[in-house]
Amino acid sequence: MRRSAWRLGAVAAATCAWILAGTSGCERPSPSGDKAGQKTLLLYCGAGMRTAAAEVIDAFHKETGVTVQADYAGSGTLITRIKAGKTGDLYMPGEIWYVEELDRQTGLVDSVTPVTYFVPCLVVQKGNPHGVASLADLAKEGLKLGLGDARACQIGRVTEQLFEKNKLDKTAIEKNVVMTSVTVNELPLWVKTRSIDATIAWDAVVAQDEFADSVEMIRIPKDQNIISPVAVGVLKCSTDIELARKFAAFLAGPTGQAIFKKNHYRVTEPED
Q1: Which of 49, 73, 230, 234 can pair with 110 through a Cys bridge, CB separation 3.0 to 4.6 Å?
Q2: Domain map of the chain by residue range?
Q3: Phi first, then psi: what are they for 110, rounded to 5°?
Q4: Collapsed DSSP state (helix, strand, coil) of residue 29
Q5: 32 pLDDT more than 70
Q6: 224 or 29: whose pLDDT is higher?
Q7: Could you say which of 3.40.190.10, 3.40.50.300, 1.10.3720.10, 3.40.50.2300 is the CATH number of the domain covering 12-117+228-262?
Q8: Which residues pair with 218 in a beta bridge?
């Protein structure tokens, strides 16, 4: 796999793609389209990007007339679907690792384009009644904790990595886990409804307006944190690979990046 440097920038990411050599290894169905003959793409998209991705899809449709159908789910769930069906046009999970893993296992990836960055943060109820200030506090006795499932979504996978990196008592933390999610979107919602006291989620998801009055975000220091770079992979089984590449470039171009930024997603690598 050949790669360009992992830097998004304001404009440079629009044309950044890492071309992967090899044959497709998948069957190509006939090009799809709606009744009016307009072309349609299928995007497998990590659930944590739903807010921004839906807006980018709408902007792309207005500019090109192309419909992008999105399948939103956890990154692990989506990679399983792609491997099983070998159909679809693009894959944008919560971490580039999944795109690389899909290509390693199947050879289905044509090109990869950087899009955004996910930053884990602690999420607590408004007012932080349990005094959670750090990752280590997740082991506090009596705390009701919800976490992502490492087998299904990137937030679960990176949560396990955070515990290992910071040498935390995973047994003590696991005793507090009362709910497990297959997508990141449910986690702050559970804090909002007081089903749990705390969780780990992406800062961009927690920053959405629906959580403004009900939860608080606690930043994890950079030296303790693990940033997830997000990229979109064009699939070799795409019904229109050139059009899929065009949408990938749109995601990373000025319009797409402005939409991600407006929705609180990081378009440059975090420094804090």
Answers
A1: 234
A2: 12-117+228-262, 120-219
A3: -85, -45
A4: coil
A5: no
A6: 224
A7: 3.40.190.10
A8: 122
- On whether the CB atoms of residues 59 and 247 are closer than 8 A, the answer is no
Instruction: Provide the CB-side half-sphere exposure for 255 (13 A, CA).
Output: 16
**pLDDT, tens digit, for every residue of 63-112?**
999 999 999 999 999 999 999 999 999 999 999 999 999 999 999 999 99
Whole-prediction pTM value? 0.85
Distance CA 152, CA 157 (A): 8
Q: What is the CA radius of gyration of the chain?
A: 19
Which residue type occupies 164? E
What is the distance between the alpha carbons of residues 184 and 118, in angstroms, rounded to a whole number?
11
Q: Work out the average pLDDT over 169-192.
A: 97
Give how far the C-alpha of residue 101 lies from the chain's centroid of Cα atoms, to the nearest Å: 15
Report the alpha-carbon distance of residue 199 to residue 185 in Å, rounded.
11
Show the tokens assigned to 222.
Answer: 């950079």
Integer CA distances (angstroms), 58 to 63, 68, 171, 177, in order: 9, 8, 45, 38
Answer yes or no: same fold for 12-117+228-262 and 120-219: yes
Q: Which CATH number fits domain 120-219: 3.40.1190.20, 3.40.50.410, 2.40.128.110, 3.40.190.10?
A: 3.40.190.10
* Euclidean distance between CA atoms 29 and 27, whole angstroms: 6
Q: What is the DSSP string of 73-105?
A: E-HHHHHHHHHHH---SEEE-SSHHHHHHHHHH
Q: Is the separation of the CB atoms in 95 and 112 below 8 Å?
A: no
> How many CA within 13 A on the CB side of residue 25?
16
- CA of 193: how far to CAs of 10, 187, 198, in Å? 37, 10, 11
